[in-house]
Amino acid sequence: MTNPPNNAAAGRASAAGPVITCQQLTKRFGDFVAVNGISFEVAAGEIFGFLGANGAGKTTAMRMLCGLLGPTEGAATVAGCDVFREPERIKQHIGYMSQKFSLYEDLTVRENIRFYGGVYGLKTAAIREKTTALLQRLGLAAERDTLVGSLPLGWKQKLAFSVALLHEPAVIFLDEPTGGVDPITRRQFWDLIYEAAARGVTIFITTHYMDEAEYCDRVSIMVDGRIDALDTPAGLKRQFGVASMDEVFLHLARGAKNVE
Amino acid sequence: MPAVELLNISKSYGTTPAVRDISLAVEAGELFGLIGPDGAGKTTLFRILTTLLLADAGTATVAGHDVVRDFRAIRNVVGYMPGKFSLYPDLTVQENLEFFAAVFRTTVAENYELVKDIYEQLAPFKNRRSGALSGGMKQKLALCCALIHKPQVLLLDEPTTGVDAVSRQEFWHMLGTLKARGITIVVSTPYMDEAALCERVALLQEGQVLRIDTPAALRAAYPWPLYAVRAARMHPLLQDLRAYPAAHSCYAFGEAAHLSLRQPAPDAAARLTAYLTGHGHTGVVVEPVEATIEDTFMDLLAQRQPSPNSAHDQPAQ
């Protein structure tokens, strides 16, 4: 391809087919195989649960898909961008949120939105417009000049999620997004996830809450760098003859050898 | 004499109240849970009980010792596992354990029997620096270090947060073993499913006790007729259930939605099924269900804040 398509076109093109594809994606650190030939596809608008025990290789796989870590071998595309050749372009088409990395506590709500809008290359007018819409949708208009550090955790999480969607990415990666909040707030966060998915945003999510695994369209479970199971929650429960995702997870992860 | 007793304990940080007039008692040998999200006051309570923080008001005792007057005595009889990993990352597994034994003027050999089952899982890594351990391993080592002086009361602040389901299950198994040896355990967790593993729990929110009871009594206290509702697609299901005229509340619960009704009706399930089918849902299954502790917790949260949605739509002051 002599003229690479512009970013928006790449984003649109990917919306038709799978938004994430992985074939035999592998990462080795010296002798240690952190991710061992994983293959899967995620469709546009799908809520894809990415589960595994601590040390199973989830974070490494996620870092590769986000363009933060070069794979050793295999192939993968995210929003039509190749993870080997175009890691920088990937970042323009994805959103990312985790408990560890989210908003700046010492900036106000509005400053955070403006900062992230700028990082993602949005024009000033677009940032202004999106700021108003976002504050309104979250009911945070009155808190626009409040320091994020003084907001309740549940609100930080909702704001971080919305900010990660500011540049209208094709995919959002959520790394244990709901830790620490009360059960009502946790479910309200899932309402935001459902709404984003209904708009066509692909959701790639890790969680330690097994009830949240049930809310995903499909769930993959990594064990020792491999994907040992991938199906709908109902399919997985049928496959392992158990009543809950908790039991599916325990069944698979108990056999793990890598305890990082 | 209770092993742990709090009477009207309050504590603020500046103008922010962290704990508001909390009273509770934990019996000797009991496995007691402090259940609540971040900001519920769990860590503040532990810091008061471990004599690391002075309450603004109220009194507290641990193993009969007053947290202010007898603070030195308390430090010898409690084992404390803080929420944040607090061992020495540059010491090895074995060195950390020996250090904590030495601080309490004992030896690893003296009390090894108490930590044996847990420490044996760490033995292959005993020469590894503790900073290089995985989350699950750090947690096990921290538990060993909190136990090595054979405490009467074990205080565990969110030991399973961020830990995967397998390690969580193993950890709770270990707590059961320790309880069987007569150690009083107070453990905090944000995971509602872990509340069911305690003998009694205090449900906490924003520094206040919502309810203290056994898991069975908390489940039984749920006041509304409750149904588990399944259909092919969860998000539209939740939306339609929330709009159902007889609905009191509706929350996702794993593969089902839990719907509580304002009042019991003999044909409630049939009517609800017809309503959902009429709204285009397929695979509709409606069945009465026993409330979980999480149902009760959410109901108490909603009662506390008359309209759950508006309360959560506005940030707290």
TrEMBL record, chain A:
The keyword Isomerase appears for this protein: no
One term of GO molecular function: ATP binding
The record's keywords, sorted A to Z, are: ATP-binding, Nucleotide-binding
Q: Does the keyword Nucleotide-binding apply?
A: yes
Q: Tell me which InterPro entries the record gives.
A: AAA+_ATPase, ABC_transporter-like_ATP-bd, P-loop_NTPase
> Which SUPFAM superfamilies does the record match to this protein?
P-loop containing nucleoside triphosphate hydrolases
Q: Which residues form the signal peptide?
A: none
SMART domains from the xrefs?
AAA
Domain ABC transporter spans what residues? 20-249
PANTHER family the record matches: ABC TRANSPORTER G FAMILY MEMBER 20 ISOFORM X1, ATP-BINDING CASSETTE, SUB-FAMILY H, MEMBER 1
Q: What is this protein called?
A: ABC transporter ATP-binding protein
Where does this protein come from, organism-wise?
Answer: Hymenobacter jeollabukensis
UniProtKB/TrEMBL annotation, chain B:
UniProt keyword Nucleotide-binding, yes or no: yes
UniProt-recorded Gene Ontology molecular function terms: ATP binding; ATP hydrolysis activity
User: Is Metal-binding given among the entry's keywords?
Assistant: no
Q: Where does the signal sequence lie?
A: none
Q: Which UniProt keywords apply?
A: ATP-binding, Nodulation, Nucleotide-binding, Transport
Domain (ABC transporter) spans 4-231
Give the matching PANTHER family.
ABC TRANSPORTER ATP-BINDING PROTEIN, ABC TRANSPORTER ATP-BINDING PROTEIN NATA
Describe the family membership recorded for this protein in Swiss-Prot or TrEMBL: Belongs to the ABC transporter superfamily.
Name of the molecule in the record: ABC transporter ATP-binding protein
